[in-house]
Amino acid sequence: MLIPHDTRIALDTVVELVNTAPEGEQGDGLPDTEALHLFAERHHISGVGVLTGKDLVAVHEVRDRFAEIFAAADAPVAAALVNRLVAAAGTTPQLTNHDGYDWHVHYFAPDASLADHLAADCGMALAFIVVAGEQERLRRCEAPDCRHAFVDLSRNRSRRYCSSRTCGNRLHVAAYRARRREAAR
C-alpha cells in the first residue's frame, strides 16, 4: 500500500493521539496544556500558539472521535464518522511548503485551532485508508493488557500487536514459558 509522506505523518499523529486516552490504570497522556503543547511540538504541528484549557477539551473530544473510527465495525460506519469529523473541522484544502517540507496538502484553515487542525489533517489521512478499502488496517493491539491503536501497514495485513518488540515479544515469551511448564509436567 503506497501512502504519501504527509498522510503517513498524519496517521502516526492520530495513532499517538488515540493512545494518549486513559485506559485501565494508565492515566491520560494529555492531562494538561503543557502536555498538549509538547504533543504538538513532537509532531511538528505549526501555528499552534498559546494553548488553553478550551483547546485541551476540544482535542480530547477529537481524540474520542478518532477512537470511534478505530473501533468502527466496517467501512460505511468508519466513513460516516470520518465525514462528520472532517466536516466539523471546516476543512480548507490548500497546497503548502514550509519549514523545510516539500509541497503537501493542509486540510485545515490557516487560523484553525489545534483540535480542528488534528481533525482535518488526521481525519483526511483516515479517509485515505477508508477510500483505499483498507479500513481493517485500523486496529487495536491484541495483547490483553494493552489495546493501543495502530495502523497495520504490513504487506499481508497480519500485524497483531502495536509493537512486536514489546507486546508481541512479551506474549511470545509467555507462551513459550507456558509450553515449557506444560512439557515439564
Element layout with pairings:
Layout: H1 5-18, H2 33-42, H3 53-71, H4 75-89, E1 94-96, E2 104-106, H5 114-131, E3 138-140, E4 149-151, H6 164-184
Antiparallel strand pairs: 1-2, 3-4
Task: Walk me through this protein's architecture.
- With 185 residues, this protein is mainly alpha-helical.
- The chain is 52% helix and 6% strand.
- It contains 6 helices and 4 strands; from the N terminus they run H-H-H-H-E-E-H-E-E-H.
- The chain has a two-stranded antiparallel sheet.
- Helix 1 crosses helix 5 (114-131), helix 3 runs parallel beside helix 5 and helix 4 (75-89) packs antiparallel against helix 5.
- The chain is globular and about 65 Å long.
- The model has no long low-confidence stretch (mean pLDDT 88).
